[in-house]
Amino acid sequence: MNQDEHRVLQPSANRSWLKRLLWLVAIIAIGIAWYFVRNPDSQLPTTTSIAGFFHKQPGNHQEPESGPKSKHGKMPDMPIPVAVAKATQGDFPIYLNGLGSVIALRTVTVHTRVDGELMRVAFTEGQMVHEGDLLAEIDPRPFQVQLHQAEGQLLRDEALLKNAEIDLVRYKKLLEQDSIAAQQTVTQEYLVQQYRGNVEMDRALVDTAKLQLIYARVTSPVTGRVGIRLVDQGNIIHAADANGLVVITQIQPIAVVFTLPEDEVPAVMKRWRSGEEIAVEAYDRAGKNKLATGHLLAVDNQIDVTTGTVKLKAQFANDDFRLFSNQFVNVKMKLDTLIAATIAPIAAIQHGSIGAFVYVVKDDNTVTVRPVKQGPSEGEKTAILEGLAPNETLVVDGVDKLREGTKVEVIQPGVRKTQEKAADTQAPTNPATPQAPASGKPLDNSDGKQAPDSGKRQHWRKGSGS
Prior knowledge:
Layout: H1 3-38, H2 47-55, E1 80-86, E2 88-110, E3 116-121, E4 128-129, E5 134-138, H3 141-176, H4 182-215, E6 217-219, E7 224-226, E8 236-237, E9 246-261, H5 265-273, E10 279-283, E11 290-304, E12 309-316, E13 328-345, E14 350-352, E15 355-361, E16 367-371, E17 373-378, E18 381-386, E19 393-397, E20 408-411, H6 415-425, H7 455-465
Parallel strand pairs: 1-20
Antiparallel strand pairs: 1-19, 2-9, 2-13, 3-5, 3-8, 4-7, 5-6, 7-9, 9-12, 10-11, 10-13, 11-12, 13-18, 14-15, 15-16, 15-19, 17-18
Helix pairs in contact: 3-4
């Protein structure tokens, strides 16, 4: 580019900057004029007021202050509302919790011992039966015929035996008179023994036939509840059938098999070896309703390596039939009792770098941090082994903003949440911004009084009016 072209472009650039400056001045003048049209009683605009004007326009967000401040601009020492509870003293039971399943003390599948037609079913599905009660009858006629046949054969062989014994006596007398050979007498003696054997076999056949008649009546081997009938009346049943007739479960008493972690085994075995009865409680699936109370019956002899638990078996009387076979239950086994222990709400226990601790409210309504040693827990209570005394006041709600020495205000447990909910519904305000009086005159920044109009302001109004 030569010098002549440079001289031509330089005035054009200067005029472009001048136009931009004129537009900026015009925009500022229009803004000031619009400001005083909306606020006719305002003072002469200054740099600060213009900045404040644009700062207050919609879209320029100003964060509200969190609360009233003191003269030095710092938040006052306001007490924090908290809910508290007292630490108590009493006997605290130590429970071990486990998951278990209810099992019948005995479960029996009733089978027939003989083959035949099922003539009668003598039970109702789901009823309670006792040991020896009749359950079903099988057609007994084939077994009665076998019994009569065995008894007839027995009579025949007994008659043969009697006749052989008479002949033996006669042969012995003739042998003494040397009238017969000795071999004939010996043969007769062995014939008598043979008939005696036949008689014993016949008697066994009679007993077998009688036993078959007994087996034709199927009775309950245990006391318990019968289930759903597996075979209907009129069917031909066999002793080799896999399903059987019905299943009976003994539910009084009933057992619960549950598991505990292997870490609890030493304490459990120590109590088990003492010979004292260990109480066991069964709860429903939710763990709220107690179903039954029993005692520990047995401990398994090995730990399951896949789960790291050991099986235990408890027995319950189940008088009210609240426990049902294969029912899932939560088990609580009472292992021991802490005498005169300090008891605190679980909600008061906090955890940090120092371990477990609580906020204790002192007499001057300030809190102090107290490290504690937490013991076993049960429900919403826990035992404190060290660090806390009975009747001390503990913070159970509102611990979020607490520090050592924080001043607190004790309220009811449900009041704090109500106050927080009401505070959320109120619109945020800025108490540091003074409101304009009804007269529309500005306030003096020092004492809040209305500032008189200055001469400069009056002269400006006259100039503007003319």
